[in-house]
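ok so for the tutorial part 2 we go from a plain amino acid sequence to predicted structure tokens. step 1 is just haveing the sequence, like this:
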Amino acid sequence: MFKSNSERIITQLVDQLLPHTDRFGAEHQPDGSLVYNNGIMMEVSLSVEDPFIEDYEERQNTRVSTSVYMIFCSNVSVFVAEKNEPVQWFNEIPVEDWENTSNHVSCWRTDGMHWMSALYFEMCKACDPNVAPINLEADCNIGLVSLYRKVKVTMKRDDDNWKYNLLKVEEVPK
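step 2 — the prediction. this is what the tokens look like for a chain of 174 residues:
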């Protein structure tokens, strides 16, 4: 079976979905915050299970799954929030739960997506710490029907480090 690189697929989708005319277009506000009018939010569902467990019920009991929500602001800032249960709409996620994983044009594809590998190994260990991750079945499902939502994002630099804090997220018409 062909394997695909989920990080690459997500970043290529972002490249196609973001307007090329507003790649770096943040509005600087008097209070020091930045407003991106053309951000996008995506959701992926991740799961890990042991395909060698024959009993369906036992396999489901050891299965580990989570939903991860991502906001991309131009090709600069990436915000990530993990939820064990899917949410109807991302405004159900408090702004404090969003982690800024990247805010620089040269590394949003790498630093911005580094969480995915770390989460994969955490989920494999939670599924079965005695089985090598390569022997487990891992899935990354990107919702194709509701692939993305356009959002307007307001953020402000954290005084203690290089990261930004999310202040507000609003849906905008596509």
